[in-house]
């Protein structure tokens, strides 16, 4: 009756089924405005349902304004409800399924098999039991204060950074921090200066807002500060401890030059320290922040140290930016999940982070050696490594070769996932002879077989 078909075994109640069916027909114009609906007794009899069920459905229609009702008169459809809807586009035919990835050299992926999941589970469980009722309320845009204190201690132990916990602000990862900083630091008519190549994330954040960009060329020592025009700059984004993606360490002279420009022209340096704890030929490189913190915003993350799904990062902010940060964060997402913050606080406090990083540095260092030996045994002297001995990926220069998008596509068809350095260059006209190989998540056998597969693939195309 009235196009209503009741499904008695459905999870949706019969009353809601009647409501939804009538609502859909009203919006489609199948039941016209002003048209009278059957009485509840009549509709119940026609559907084989109880009158109470139909009354409940009519109450829903009345509450949401789909019908009007007056005592002693039939319920009628309210005016102005007919919606003209467009037909949904026919979905495109599915592309042919790609071959499975057999050798995955994606970048930025830690070895998650080594993460102490049982301990982490215990810490999260303990946090759920031990947090007070007050701590489960909105905590504000700064973050969990005990975590800020532990991060300040961690930075001192791991990077010799003297940081006050009051200047540490928790974020939903480094990307969220960059979203906030770009809007806070923007000045009309001033550009953001970025390394070229650099991670597309920061480039996209700025470009999507229509803010102007200026490029810093990168060589084997990182960003070339001499190419920076300090005038009309609002901020400079750099990865000085391990330039992404080429891997160079910014020398002290270039750091000092950048700090002088920031002071002279009153702009800020965004220092993204995404993986400097994984350095294999000595201790982590000191950040620019340690030289002069007055114009430096230090951005850190735990995504590569622990696991990517842990969306917790942090910034160390100069005092003069903290009010703007609190305002912007308060109206973006307010805060991070408290249980993960509390668990991470204990992970740091118990020095489990120190032990985990020390262990992973050894594991990644061994994998790096396997990768370099495999490259030497297959490609020989035709391949040169760029950058410092740190991080979870290698930038490799293949002398006399050029790689483009078709190469990546063909590699993918052959079961090899690989990245080009050119995809991180804004103009795609530099570093065409370089590939990026992530290795942190791979086993020794996967690395060896993957390099052999890559060698054979390139040899076939030569």
From TrEMBL:
Keywords: DNA-binding, Pyridoxal phosphate, Transcription, Transcription regulation. Transmembrane segments: none annotated. Residues 12-80 form the HTH gntR-type domain. InterPro entries: Aminotransferase_I/II_large (IPR004839), HTH_trans_reg/aminotransferase (IPR051446), PyrdxlP-dep_Trfase (IPR015424), PyrdxlP-dep_Trfase_major (IPR015421), Tscrpt_reg_HTH_GntR (IPR000524), WH-like_DNA-bd_sf (IPR036388), WH_DNA-bd_sf (IPR036390). In the C-terminal section; belongs to the class-I pyridoxal-phosphate-dependent aminotransferase family. This is HTH-type transcriptional regulatory protein GabR. The lineage of its organism: Bacteria, Bacillati, Bacillota, Negativicutes, Selenomonadales. The gene is gabR_3.
């Amino acid at each position: 009756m009235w196009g209503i078909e009741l499904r008695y075994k459905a999870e949706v109640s019969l009353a809601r089924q009647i409501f939804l069916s009538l609502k859909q027909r009203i919006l489609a114009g199948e039941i016209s405005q002003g048209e009278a609906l059957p009485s509840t007794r009549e509709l119940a009899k026609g559907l084989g349902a109880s009158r109470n069920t139909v009354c409940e459905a009519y109450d829903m229609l009345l509450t949401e304004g789909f019908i009007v009702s007056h005592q002693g008169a039939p319920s009628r459809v309210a005016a102005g409800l007919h919606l003209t809807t467009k037909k949904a586009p026919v979905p495109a035919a599915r592309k042919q399924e790609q071959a499975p990835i057999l050798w995955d050299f994606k970048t930025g992926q830690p070895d998650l098999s080594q993460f102490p999941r049982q301990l982490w589970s215990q810490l999260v469980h303990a946090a759920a039991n031990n947090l007070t009722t007050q701590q489960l309320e909105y905590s504000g845009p700064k973050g969990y204060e005990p975590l800020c204190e532990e991060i300040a201690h961690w930075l001192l132990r791991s990077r010799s950074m003297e940081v006050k916990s009051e200047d540490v602000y928790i974020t939903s990862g480094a990307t969220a921090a960059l979203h906030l900083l770009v809007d806070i630091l923007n000045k009309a008519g001033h550009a953001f200066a970025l390394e070229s190549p650099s991670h597309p994330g920061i480039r996209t954040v700025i470009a999507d807002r229509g803010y102007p960009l200026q490029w810093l060329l990168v060589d084997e020592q990182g960003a070339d500060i001499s190419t920076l025009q300090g005038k009309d700059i609002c901020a400079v984004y750099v990865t000085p401890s391990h330039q992404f993606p080429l891997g160079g360490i910014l020398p002290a002279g270039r750091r000092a030059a950048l700090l002088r420009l920031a002071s002279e022209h009153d702009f800020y340096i965004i220092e993204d320290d995404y993986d400097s704890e994984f350095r294999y030929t000595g201790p982590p490189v000191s950040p620019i922040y340690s030289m002069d913190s007055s114009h430096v915003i230090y951005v850190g993350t735990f995504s590569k140290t622990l696991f990517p799904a842990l969306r917790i990062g942090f910034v160390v902010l100069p005092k003069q930016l903290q009010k703007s940060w609190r305002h912007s964060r308060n109206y973006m997402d307010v805060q991070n999940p408290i249980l993960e913050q509390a668990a991470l606080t204990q992970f740091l406090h118990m020095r489990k982070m120190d032990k985990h990083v020390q262990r992973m540095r050894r594991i990644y260092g061994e994998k790096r050696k396997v990768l370099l030996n495999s490259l030497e045994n297959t490609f020989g002297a035709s391949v040169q490594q760029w950058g410092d001995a740190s991080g979870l990926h290698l930038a490799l220069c293949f002398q006399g070769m050029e790689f483009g998008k078709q190469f990546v596509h063909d590699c993918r068809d052959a079961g090899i996932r690989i990245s080009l350095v050119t995809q991180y260059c804004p103009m795609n006209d530099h570093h065409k002879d370089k590939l990026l190989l992530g290795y942190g998540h791979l086993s020794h056998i996967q690395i060896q077989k993957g390099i052999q597969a890559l060698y054979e693939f390139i040899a076939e195309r030569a």
